[in-house]
Structures are given as structure tokens and as C-alpha cells.
Amino acid sequence: MLKAKVYVTIKQSVLDPQGVAVQGALHSVGFREVESLRIGKYMELELDTDNRQEAEERLQQMCEKLLANTVVEDYRYELEG
Amino acid sequence: MLKAKVYVTIKQSVLDPQGVAVQGALHSVGFREVESLRIGKYMELELDTDNRQEAEERLQQMCEKLLANTVVEDYRYELEG
Prior knowledge:
2 copies of one chain form a homodimer. The first copy, chain A, contains 2 helices and 3 strands. By secondary structure, chain A is of the alpha+beta class. Chain A has a single domain (about 1-80), classed as Mth169, Chain: A (2-Layer Sandwich). In chain A, strands 2-1-3 form a 3-stranded antiparallel β-sheet. Chain A is elongated and about 50 Å long. The termini of chain A are close together. The mean pLDDT of chain A is about 95. The interface of A and B includes residues 40, 61 and 65 of A. β2 (about 35-45) of chain A pairs antiparallel with β2 of chain B.
């Protein structure tokens, strides 16, 4: 059993209206020091395998095929022990 | 200027229907090794301050007040240099 963490973020060149809205909400309640805010997804997975190399390859395939929209999003992943 | 990362996750005792749906989608395209999958939010912030201690306190306030729903979500944050 391996645990993995996947981070999917919107590319820097792409607008993030959700982040802009949350930044505006923070400003409106007094957190004016927030100069920028971008929102992404964070996923925790449990994989039924003990082969780290295979798990990394499979994670990359999952991200490319389903977890991230690579036109507008970047992804990265980490495997835990 | 300090950069911060905020992770908001659904508490273990709370159902995560979005995660269940994504897990099902992964299974249906052949990634049957995924035993569990939970989805949270990941935020990158830039803060207009150089005081790390103040920034940490302010981040905690932001999470408690606006970024996380502490009834059903946990949060954690990291400050970068």
C-alpha cells in the first residue's frame, strides 16, 4: 500500500476567477495583505501496490488522462512510504 | 513578501462524494489499484509582509474565518521564505 498526494494547479498564464473571488472576500473582511491567491486541487490517494516505480508511472497516467486538464492545468505528485 | 500554501481537506469522518466519483472514474478507465481517494483544496497566497510570526497568525485567522469550513474540514498551512 502506497500513499500519494497529487496537486493540480491552474497554469500561471490562465485566469483563476475563483481565486480572485476568494482574494476579494479576504480583502473585504480585512485581510488586505493578500496580494494574490490561486486555488488548485489537492488529492490524497491510497494505491494497492508496493512497487514505487510502477506507482509513479501509473500516477502520471492518471494525471494525464483524468485528474488534470493539461491544457490549462499543471500537476505534480508525491509518493509517501 | 511571503508565500504561503494552504491545504483544506475534508475530515476523515465526513463523506467525500467528489472523491468517490473520481475514484469510480479512475476504476472505469483501468486504474483499479486506487483504494481510496479524497479531494481537498490547495491555495497559494502571496502576503505583503515580511513578519513570519504575524503572517502565521493572520493565515490561521483566514482559515478559521473564510478559507475552511471547520465543521467538516481540516486545514494546514506552510510559509515559504
